[in-house]
């Protein structure tokens, strides 16, 4: 098994909290609602933090970043490095009482490419698989088209559903009729954009979750979320606005939990063609010029954003993998703030008079995202551009971004597997649906050198070779200014009463990480 490096060393934080003892039912307030309850609809974080408590994966990522058994208890690869054999856990049942078998895993793999209208598809996670066979109920054999040392990483992100869902559509998961998983909780009811009610799965194969019943309210307004916690209407909230942290810390019955994040916010700029949708065709597409992309990066004062908007929560980013993540390249410099040099580069590229455009971002998806986008608009205006800012509701935004309706837009990608390979492949790999690359490459960066380095990483079974190739790919993307990195978002939660919350390395607000003191 490939060993992943430990996530952020020893910085995982566990907080102690205070409150009401003996609770069996709790209510959580989460900032972002899923776009679908179908666990295969989108790889976005808000979808997956819900899927993770209802469904399960063959392989898990442990707190130290290493692979640990999930629905598969062990796995091995043949000498030719093409055939993988997985021994599946016995005695596991789905929420409808049917047994989990290898046939369910095969069905899951076959279903994923058939899910329509996904804004962030899972297909790239299965691209290496040539065939999957259920040899018997508890033996799964996967054959890859080429050596694929990253297969365990890919499978650690795939949620297994029951073959009994047959040809169910995504809407059937919302209704609950197809919500058949093996996870620690099972779905009771769901009202899109409003709330999700779940109950403990009494037959779960792993450690039983602490609370019997959980109501999750989706509260995208930060002030409402904090007010609901203060009023005792919810017991737990995520995405606490940094400006509210000190005030909440002073409350006797509220505890704040903070942890570093591997989710990087960035600005993507369209690089596909000589014109782009938000800029007058007579101007052309300035983003295809590396000097322009560098200028836009130099025009952003990241320290000011973190200090004045995020209240020192988060850290300036220069690549997807922060220090401590496998694939982090320590030789990539931090982006500078140099507006004068930005103006010089724009003039050198032939855009000394600037241009007009609208930049876009989601409203309420990330902490203080509206204010961050406004600040970026102002900073770009200061180097001569005519900028309008438009924030779009998150449940609409990502579909529009995937449909390439934006020329310059803010988005994030979080590393959830302990290494940078998925982020690099999904966001920066040349978009190729058949190959399974670039599913989140909405701005269409493409580099043969980058792709070649990343290909070497995916072919390397030795950690040292794999890490070197990932670092090379990250360096190429940084030199190209493939995207404009902003910052790694800080993660902040708050709880009431005698409840503990343990942050997980992926930074998701997992209900299974809540416990009673």
Tell me what the structure shows:
With 517 residues, the chain is of the alpha+beta class. 26% of the residues lie in helices and 22% in strands. The chain contains 14 helices and 21 strands. It has helices spanning 45-54, 102-111, 151-155, 170-175, 222-230, 245-249, 290-298, 302-309, 339-348, 369-381, 394-402, 421-428, 448-459, 463-480, and strands at residues 25-30, 59-61, 67-69, 72-77, 83-88, 129-136, 139-144, 185-191, 195-200, 213-218, 236-237, 254-259, 263-269, 315-316, 356-363, 386-393, 408-414, 484-488, 491-496, 499-501, 514-516. It has a seven-stranded mixed β-sheet with strand order 8-9-10-1-11-19-12. The protein has a four-stranded antiparallel β-sheet with strand order 4-5-7-6, covered by helices on one side. The chain has a four-stranded antiparallel β-sheet with strand order 14-18-13-17. β6 (129-136) and β7 form a beta hairpin. α7 (290-298) runs antiparallel to α9 (339-348) and α12 runs antiparallel to α13. Residues 1-22 have low confidence and may be disordered.
Quick take:
With 517 residues, the chain is of the alpha+beta class. The chain is built from 14 helices and 21 strands.
Alpha-beta classification = alpha+beta
Counting DSSP E segments of at least 2 residues, the number of strands comes to: 21
Helix content: 25-40%
| Largest beta sheet: strand ordering | 8-9-10-1-11-19-12
N-to-C span: 36 Å
Tally of individual helices: 14
Quote the beta fraction. 15-25%
Low-confidence stretches are 1-22
The rounded Rg comes to 23 Å
Largest sheet properties = 7 strands, mixed
What oligomeric state best describes the polypeptide chains here?
single chain
Average pLDDT rating:
92
How would the global form be characterised?
globular
